[in-house]
Batch of 3 targets.
Target 1
Amino acid sequence: MLIHGQCHCTNVSFTLDWTPEPSEIPARACTCSFCTKHGGVWTSCPTGTLRVRVTEPSRVSKYAFGTKTADFHVCAKCGVTPVVTCRIDGRLYAVVNVNTFDGVDPSLVRRSAATLDGESEEARIARRKRNWIAQVEYEEAAPHDAP
């Protein structure tokens, strides 16, 4: 299943090739203060492939907090956070925000709360390596490519 998503102004967009076809999409509503305030509800397909494209890189802020092991890609133009990345052993891993999906039947998304407070940095990295999307292509448009 190809899932397309983007921030409100389309500056940050992605295509997630969810393989194999999902019968449901698990979505974790993180209870940390950042995700709660920004509506972050995250999903990943460890066997999938993600392509992220940023049209105006100068209008994306990468925000890291807490353990500073993940970057929240916040569009400075519209304020939406469609993707989070984490570099582990030289490889880029990611999760995407289900609230930024386009054209996905909402009944396919199974939301549940996720509290990660108290998780050690080592456990957090191991969980991401196991559960996050491991095939990630992150592309920023060259300044002359931007509209």
Target 2
Amino acid sequence: MFRNIFNYTLIASTIRLSTPLILAALGGLYAERSGVINIALEGMMLAGAFTAAVVTVFTHNPWIGIMAAVCAGLLVAGLHAVATISYRADQVVSGTAINILFLGVPALLSGALFESTGATPQLPRDQVLPDVMFFDPEKSPALSSIFNQKPLVYAAFILTILTAFILYRSRFGLRLRAVGENPEAADTAGVSVTRMRYSGVLISGALAALGGAYLSIGQNSLFTRNMTAGRGFIALAALIFGKWDPLEHCWPACFSVSQRQFR
């Protein structure tokens, strides 16, 4: 019974499904540590997913699609940062507005570009992100199923370790956490609160957009309307349940949610 529950198919599916959640949760972590609540993770993921799919359709290169998705995430995050940091708008209202906006904008643009509001054109197999092959599927089907994954899967785990190092072992991380926990004290010490918060929100947008790009040109081969299906909110919940700690709690929380989705 134990072997039937914990088989390699479940492990492989958990890794694949958790990747966009990990990327979005890491993005939300940077914003939250700087003192900005990023409710807009869902909208940023949609922006990244749509941009990656559209740019890949026209350039036939998924790597250019990923770069375009990151740029789109930075743009959307910039809107959220300007509204909440420079103009001190309500963070929840701003994030909700972005989420609602990107429920409709991709459908509008898709209709204008491809005469279909439901989905972008299907990408050929050679235009989606390839698997990184470590094991031969014929010789080691179990290991190849678990470890032969898309590049963004490995990037998600590397970024988790890198985020932990940045937050707890670097000057940037110390200042980011100081700005989020006590902005008055950080400002007194000569740290620019505005600059650090902009940095946190922009990094948040880039990582969330990467999660969206994985959905459209990694896990799937097209963008469909509302394809994130609430993953941005799930990532935010995993971040909260993970106690804003990238290594010890956040990615295990994302894994747990992904297992429930698979079942």
Target 3
Amino acid sequence: MMSAQLAEVITQWEGYELFSINACYATDRKKLGGFSWRKFCLWLKYLSEACLICAFHRIDCVIITHSFFRSAFLKDSFFLWLGRVFHRKMVVWVHMDPNRLHWKPETSRFVRYAKRVLTLPDKWVACTPGLMNQWPEAFDRKKLTALSNGIPDPVGNKTSKKKTHLHVVFLSSMTEEKGWRELFATAEVLCSENPGVVFDFYGDPGAGESRELLETVFAGSSHPDRILWHGGVWGDQKINVLLESDLFCLPSWTEAFPIAIIEAMACGLPVISTRVGGVPDAITDGINGWLVEPRDQSGLLSALRDAVVQRDTLVNMGQNNRLRYLNNFSLSAFDKKWQQLLKSIC
């Protein structure tokens, strides 16, 4: 998503020409892993296209979004070697945790190769500042920088509507790592304590889940009228869901810098999330939301109880988030930071 956003932004810059290659094998993440001859042929096609572009066009800088899953890391590394062969400036934009690559034991041939690959780019760009300190020591700190993600403004100002219930919304993939099970269990407790709270879960079944399983879990809730799973939503429908909600909750076990949190902030929602990845760069505990530890169900319940008690404060927190979005995570801020970085390199 953010790669497409950057490509669109660059095409609007005066004096810039963009050549873009989407070197991805599938839109379904479940089908990305493993080897197949089809994927091998696609990889050769993408690499050939990149080679022709570098050979026959004036390329000042190559921007690569690099994966840190083992097989995908190997695939992407060839694009870095290609840029080095053609003596092009290279920027690698990282949207995931490089620690997924498992940098131990250092004696393995793969790790030695991976560390060699890390020396090739001119800049490694994190999608938020807080991630850089979490990256492995193998990275050259002098080559690290951070540019926060930014999205177009999905709405004007959030309109306040008087509602009898406080609506808590979860909007992400329904996978275990996103923490939906912890939130479901917490919702059971809070709905028993307070009849004025509604939990809305939005998202398609993720890895290890199925529609039948999710329907069974939610149908078995003690409060099926106030703990609801609605399936996936996209585009304007997703924004409307956020605008109709009072509080956004994403208790993920692991994250880089989730776009869903930026979207919630842009819609003027306070946020409850976990201290993972770059989330603390966006959310300050007690100021524009609450931060809890991952898999800490008691901490999550405590934060939600605070939110219910401080219902009047939620509006001010949401306004604070809206302002933070405009200053730090808007498309104009994103545009300006990328122009400055590329000008400094090229």
